[in-house]
Structure of Alpha-L-glutamate ligase-related protein ATP-grasp domain-containing protein:
Amino acid sequence: MEADGQTSIDALKTFLKGKQTVFVKPLEGSSGQGIEKYTAPDWTDMVAFASKVRAVGKCVIEEGIVQHPRMAELNPGSVNTVRISTLIGDKKEGIVYAFLRIGNGKIMDNVDCGGMAARVDLVSGKLLTVAADKAGNTFTKHPITGTEIIGFQLPYFEEAKAMCLEAMRMVPSMRYVAWDVALTEQGPTLIEGNSFPSHAVPQFAAHYPDKIGILPEFRAFIDI
């Protein structure tokens, strides 16, 4: 639901009924900044909770997603989303790249909040590379769970790709979009589409030991 400084307690009660976890996300902003996680005990005092929500201003309140158990084995502290980038290019259209974003001790997997990312093989759905963060650190195993990163198999990756391609065709005016997808036991769930996604994640040097980078992958779609 959308909320702001005038959101009523009744509206919050209606939305929160039956829910156990929600995230409050400012409507303006990026990179996971300002997002807060709340669980059912936090809104036992609905007046106090409503005050917190109103203080954020214009925001979105979203129900928490329970990720696939396999994804939780990698990192249970955040929902680890797949970023799948689609491009309607002059030469062809389709998926340019995919990365798994992995949390590292915080409630978000965003690399601007201390998370890391690893490249996903577009055919097999397995992680191709070490994970890397914005500080230049690389990881062969997750530092909290010890789960091996290279070769990690993403569940429902084919379904996730199909979902993003369908979304791409629904908004053809947005030729380049990076879709964030959560993988659950029931299949993929689309979180959001980013029309101006991070330039950092697709260019981490650790993911391109050939020192060429991602440019050839874009050149397959457009002349640059």
